[in-house]
Amino acid sequence: MAEYIPSPRDWVREQVELYERSGGTEGTTLRDTGLPVIIVTHIGNKTSAVRKTPLMRVKDGANYVLVGSQGGAPRHPVWVYNLRTNPMVEIRDRTVVYPMQAREVTDAAERARLWKIAVAAYPPYEEYQTRTTRQIPIFVAEPVR
Ligand code: F42
């Protein structure tokens, strides 16, 4: 079993702890917004350690859409590089955990469709994109059969 290295950010680490400790019945929304959050468990591309990242829950059928917005910060979140290297992830959606495979969306039409779904689920994404010159990366996580 690889070592688990928690997020250095207190609020992120605490959300992951509460979400997992409660078996997915507490800590499942983003602060005051009440909007649902998932936990993506993945592998660090440099440390090979287990990393756990809360993201907004954006669904497209059975798939999850993962948006590397990081509040419109100038750089991609580091988990983006982890998923590019190690696409096998686990997604916890409240009480259920799914093995999934993540794929970065590069096709412009597919990206446009998924971006609309993402903004509908979490409207601030739209403003985050205006804060940065980088194009916010989008992954689609698909069930492993
Ligand atoms: N972030 C988003 O980008 N999108 C969201 O929809 C989103 C929703 C959300 C909801 C709730 C919540 O609590 C947090 C939410 N966040 C969202 C924030 C998200 O959880 C991440 O904290 C944020 O995206 C930043 O991701 P990050 O991977 O850059 O995390 C930083 C703080 C971090 O943990 N850095 C680690 C560190 O030690 O500095 C590095 C972790 C790591 O993966 N290291 C790699 C390794 O090998 O282990 C090396 C990586 C490399 O290439 O250098």
Q: What's the topology here?
A:
Elements: H1 10-21, E1 37-43, E2 50-56, E3 59-60, E4 63-67, H2 78-85, E5 88-93, E6 96-104, H3 108-121, H4 124-131, E7 138-143
Antiparallel strand pairs: 1-2, 1-5, 3-4, 4-7, 5-6, 6-7
Bound molecules: coenzyme F420.
Describe this structure as you would to a colleague.
With 145 residues, the protein is of the alpha+beta class. It has one domain: Roll (Pnp Oxidase, Chain A), CATH 2.30.110. It has 4 helices and 7 strands. It has helices at 10-21, 78-85, 108-121, 124-131; strands at 37-43, 50-56, 59-60, 63-67, 88-93, 96-104, 138-143. The chain has a 7-stranded antiparallel beta sheet with strand order 2-1-5-6-7-4-3, with helices on both faces. It is globular, with a radius of gyration of 14 Å. It starts with 9 loop residues before the first helix and ends with a strand. The mean pLDDT is 97. The site of coenzyme F420 has 26 residues, from α1, β2 and α2.
* Name given to the CATH homologous superfamily: Electron Transport, Fmn-binding Protein, Chain A
Percent in helix: 25-40%
Write down the CATH class.
Mainly Beta
How many individual β-strands? 7
SSE series: HEEEEHEEHHE
Question: Which residues form runs of ≥5 with pLDDT under 50?
Answer: none
Largest sheet, strands/sense/barrel = 7 strands, antiparallel
Topology-level CATH name: Pnp Oxidase, Chain A
What shape does the CA trace take?
A: globular
Strand coverage percent: 25-35%
Strand order of the largest sheet: 2-1-5-6-7-4-3
> CATH architecture, please?
Roll
Structural class, by secondary structure, is alpha+beta
